[in-house]
Amino acid sequence: MGMGHWTRSGWATGWIVAFVSMGSAGKCGEAPDESSFVPLFDGKSTDGWALYGSGESPQGWVVDDGALHRAEGGGDIRTALPYDHFELKLDWKVGPGGNSGIMYRVREGDPASYFSGPEYQILDDDPHGLDDSSMTAAASLYDLVAAKGKELRPVGEYNHTRILVQGNHVEHWLNGKKVVDIDMHSDDWNQRVNASKFKEWEQFGKSSVGYLVLQDHGDPVWFKNIALRPLPPPDPADATCADVTTGSAHALLADRGEDVVVLDVRTPPEFAAGHLADAIMVDFRAPDFEAKLEEMDRDATYLVYCRSGRRSAGALSVMESMGFQEAYNMLGGFLQWGAEKRAFVSSQPGE
User: Fold this and answer.
1) Is pLDDT above 50 for 23?
2) Domains in the chain, please, with CATH?
């Protein structure tokens, strides 16, 4: 799904992403800071989850002893908000022969969630006669990458899963062991997709931002201790100008600190009323906007924001055309940052 583009003449098709976030984060492969995870499930209700395709309250999913349980047919359920770079952790179990899945970076608008979202397979392997070489066994990246060397617990016992997605890099973990490691859109990935049924699905694996989905495959399944932490965008090997959620923007600042130049492209009155700490104001609508950019280091890392993410998208487009090597547009802008109750500098008493 394309994110859309903003020019000085207006907004072309796209969608703005809101992100409920989270605290500091590291990179894929690092030991996670457990305090940076926030729950996606409160263990008491289905709040924060919706039916895929309709956005309505989950049907057929109930809370059972602190777990989100698919009790009867109702359909796949998704998170309320989409995510880009993240680490997800949860515990799951199935009944005998049970089958389910966790899809990520799923877009709405397709007949089913798996038309766009890669899947972490949830399965009781034994009745299906599957082993570590199977690309449809538990913890595999479904039908693409087998989960090698895994230790699956007996049916009825909870397994612990982690899924890391950062840029194109994907890792699947099961019970403390990494079992899948691949880069989407690499030669290896493309060969695997082209040899699978997914080659016919135009949007498969193409979304850089999307929902997390728990699959209703017709079998009882339980998920608990569901939590997520944001990861910063990956360090770019080449020029990068991209959209990021507010959660990933916060993680970028936490991860790289003073190495990131924060640009506020709103008007002077907006800036004076409140802004992110250490932000530099460069008014996107001012006649000298590009002249001020000319004075800046094109090799530095920039986080660009405005009120809601539209002017900053335009600023990002200009920066990309001028040869800036690494710049990120914060989707949702200052409004979303404030809605998440993140700290900012304000000159207005009481704010």
Assistant:
1) no
2) 26-230 (2.60.120.560), 234-339 (3.40.250.10)
